[in-house]
Amino acid sequence: MKVAVPVLIIPNLVMDGVQVVRRGGVLAAARGMGVLLAFGVVGTVLGTRLLMVLPPRVAVLAMGLVVLTFVGINTTRLQPRVPRAWSSWLAPPVGLVAGVLGGLANVPGLPLVIYFYSLGMDKAEFIRSVAFTFVSFKIIQLGTVTYFGLMTWPILAWSLALTGLGLGGFWLGLAVQDRLPPATFNRAVLGFLGALGLWLVVRAAL
Fold this sequence. Notes:
mainly alpha
């Protein structure tokens, strides 16, 4: 995990950056995100520190549980909704939790996606917000792992090499997504994530 987390940051950052460029509206997405990102910085530092001191199986278990939670929410079609006025006090805990999960297991997306969805954003605003915060959290994480010495030169080289492969898979995924019916595509993704989550939990328990 101490290698996997930093080596995947740059590929994730580049692919999320492509999403931001494709969707546009960065300034609109950035409005009102200051508190969320500020607490995300604190959470990312805490999560990265936990990654360094906790046994590797704890980070693996955390990642597996987050993935299974995501699959469970999508499978049950849970649709939480909260008033927009609540965002001022929801942003700090969401940012903190997303940062900790990002630093520890490289998966800040679950609390962010649930948060934006629960605010009842329309499709365009939702996509812009997700893309913008993903890029922001990855930039924060890149600085944090570099500060803690986890981003070594060999890991950086592997990360840059994987970025090229990741972009190839990214465009292939977009092509497949365009050709498959949405329901079929979603079931395939959830099936893969469910199997991955179970494998991570079992691996951490052994």
